[in-house]
């Protein structure tokens, strides 16, 4: 089956914007009694679940044979070739506290390779996207990673560990190093948005451990199509399912990765 990925990507962007409008509207009447606790510091609400249901319905129309790896477990369908990797609301903690940074993240995997990625940040109405062999885009414009060559001049993003505290000591040491040897660090609270911001050059790099495939698959792909690099903490390719990711512009990436490697291995 030959798929027109450009056309499909346009459909996925429309779907993300439609469900994003639903999320934005629900936020207006959202109250804390609607929060459910999935695990330690892991929250969900009917908004995450309803959004995932809508996304799965629409994506199933766009590509009927594809399966799903979706955070809230709405569909367990496995596709023989194509599978969507979906986070219906990345940044749930921000959403429930009314902090304006949360996104929808959708990637399409062909066998084990990502071929399309969409990250839609709802509050700023910013849709980041790319497909196989394409450039990367933010709304209608092309985006590229930054050109900052030295780690000393970078602004980095990270996510604080909120479970799996076994690697906390290494994380804190790396954090200290980055505090003292870069322009600083930010914690947006949405890994998909962190990666999208690397892709468009707002951040020079991003690292976090403990992430799931739906947090990173789309954003990491968009970073690569925007000219950036992505790896796990050993410099290998296992950053989607391996629960650790480092990403950056191609000029500072090797220096950044070496610092991460030194602290974590
Ligand atoms: C979370 C966000 C956050 C990251 C967490 C993720 P969720 O996703 O991406 O930035 O630090 O590790 O779990 O739970 O809001 O979809
Ligand atoms: Ca997430
Ligand atoms: Ca989520």
Question: How would you describe this protein?
Answer:
The protein is of the alpha+beta class. The chain has two domains: 5-143, Fructose-1,6-Bisphosphatase, subunit A, domain 1 (Fructose-1,6-Bisphosphatase, Chain A, domain 1); 151-263, D-Maltodextrin-Binding Protein, domain 2. It has helices at 5-28, 46-62, 92-97, 168-181, 191-199, 213-225, 253-264, and strands spanning 35-39, 42-45, 67-70, 82-90, 103-110, 113-121, 126-131, 136-138, 141-143, 155-158, 184-186, 205-209, 228-231, 244-249. A seven-stranded mixed β-sheet has the order 3-4-5-6-7-8-9, with helices on both faces. It has a five-stranded mixed β-sheet with strand order 11-10-12-14-13, sandwiched between helices. A two-stranded antiparallel ribbon has the order 1-2. α1 (5-28) packs antiparallel against α2 (46-62), α4 (168-181) runs antiparallel to α7 and α5 (191-199) runs parallel beside α6 (213-225). The longest helix has 24 residues, at 5-28. The model has no long low-confidence stretch (mean pLDDT 96). Residues 48, 71, 87, 89-90, 92 line the site of one calcium ion.
Protein topology:
Blueprint: H1 5-28, E1 35-39, E2 42-45, H2 46-62, E3 67-70, E4 82-90, H3 92-97, E5 103-110, E6 113-121, E7 126-131, E8 136-138, E9 141-143, E10 155-158, H4 168-181, E11 184-186, H5 191-199, E12 205-209, H6 213-225, E13 228-231, E14 244-249, H7 253-264
Helix pairs in contact: 1-2, 4-7, 5-6
Bound molecules: D-MYO-inositol-1-phosphate (IPD) and calcium ion (2 copies).
């Amino acid at each position: 089956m030959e798929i027109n990925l450009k056309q499909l990507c346009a459909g996925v962007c429309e779907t993300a914007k439609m469900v994003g409008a639903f999320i934005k509207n629900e936020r207006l009447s959202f109250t804390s009694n609607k929060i459910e606790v999935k695990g330690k510091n892991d929250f969900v609400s009917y908004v995450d679940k309803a959004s995932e249901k809508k996304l799965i319905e629409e994506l199933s129309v766009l590509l009927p044979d594809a399966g799903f790896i979706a955070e809230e477990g709405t569909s367990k369908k496995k596709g023989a070739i194509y599978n969507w990797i979906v986070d219906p609301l990345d940044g749930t903690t921000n959403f429930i506290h009314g902090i304006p940074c949360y996104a929808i993240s959708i990637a399409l995997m062909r066998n084990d390779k990502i071929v399309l990625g969409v990250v839609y940040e709802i509050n700023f109405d910013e849709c980041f996207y790319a497909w196989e062999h394409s450039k990367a885009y933010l709304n209608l414009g092309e985006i590229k990673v930054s050109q900052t060559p030295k780690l000393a001049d970078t602004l980095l993003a990270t996510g604080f560990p909120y479970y799996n505290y076994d690697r906390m000591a290494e994380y804190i040491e790396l954090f200290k190093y980055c505090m003292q040897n870069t322009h600083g660090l930010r914690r947006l609270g949405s890994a998909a948005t962190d990666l999208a911001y690397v892709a468009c050059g707002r951040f020079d790099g991003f690292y976090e451990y403990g992430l799931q495939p739906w947090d990173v698959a789309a954003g990491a792909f968009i970073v690569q199509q925007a000219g950036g690099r992505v790896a796990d903490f050993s410099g290998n390719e296992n950053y989607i399912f391996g629960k650790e990711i480092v990403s950056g512009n191609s000029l500072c990436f090797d220096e950044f990765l070496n610092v991460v490697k030194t602290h974590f291995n």
